[in-house]
Amino acid sequence: MKATCYHIDHGQPAEVRIDTALSGSPDLAWIHLGEIDDETRHWLHEVAALDDYLIDALTATETRPRCEAFEGGAFLNLRGRSREALDGDVLASVRIWATRGRVFSLVRKPLVAVGMVEAEVAAGHVHDPGDLITAFAAAITADLDPEVADIGDQLDDCEERIDVHRVFQLRRTVSRVRIAAISYRRFLNPQRQALEKLAALPGDWLGDDDRLHIAAAADRAARMAEELESIRERAALMHETLSDLRAEQIDSRSLVISIAALVFLPLTFITGLYGMNVKGLPYAESPYVFDGIMAVCAMVAAGIVIWFVRRHWIER
Length: 316
What we know:
Elements: E1 3-9, E2 12-16, H1 18-22, E3 28-33, H2 38-46, H3 52-59, E4 66-70, E5 73-80, E6 92-99, E7 102-107, H4 112-122, H5 129-160, H6 167-200, H7 208-273, H8 289-310
Parallel strand pairs: 3-7
Antiparallel strand pairs: 1-2, 1-3, 4-5, 5-6, 6-7
Helix pairs in contact: 4-5, 5-6, 5-7, 6-7, 7-8
């Protein structure tokens, strides 16, 4: 069981042993568990003495962002960027149980936001559970904001470079952007709702300033979700545009092939007719028949092309 424990009393943070963190009555004891295994579950049940409902929520395999009030505290599940590759989901979860004087946090994959929160603790900016929850909410949203902006920038770049000769390359990029936008939006919408619910929970362990900062993080998550929805719609529209360009490109090439086939169809008939190994063909013995046939073929081809131009099947 990998654990990091911080003991904060009178504004002085210190990294301590796990048993020290649980003893006494500090302003804040933060126990962060870096993996979820049988030893972790046993420790939560036997040593931390948490309720079975909380243990199940903290160690669940599949999670989504949510917030629930429980026994004078709050259980919070948030999603943020991970330092390691993920299987399936683009964001990893952090599960938090917070009550007066204590916060337990668990992750399956190391989150970028955890390092940012630890830096806030070490700098002495965290004094109580409300400050710690606020630090988590702010760190996760601050870390995700550039990622969402980068997705939008990729789509902007595709829109600027849209061209019939880059259809395949742009379609791959647009599809990747659309998938990323859908994946991020899947978690940001419920994350906004979870933060809004947390800001409205009763309890004096959350101060008014904490509620304001959490509400600001919720607003930032809402803005990112709206931007991702816009990116998803723009990507869908651009995908349709690229499909239309590709269809026009195929139609144009098919038209060229059809015109070439129509031009050479009567010429093939004439040359095939005079290529038969039979007697009786008109002017077959004349020394000028070859030149005559070539001239007829040229006039037929020119006549067909002129007819196509007048019908506007091909441009001049």
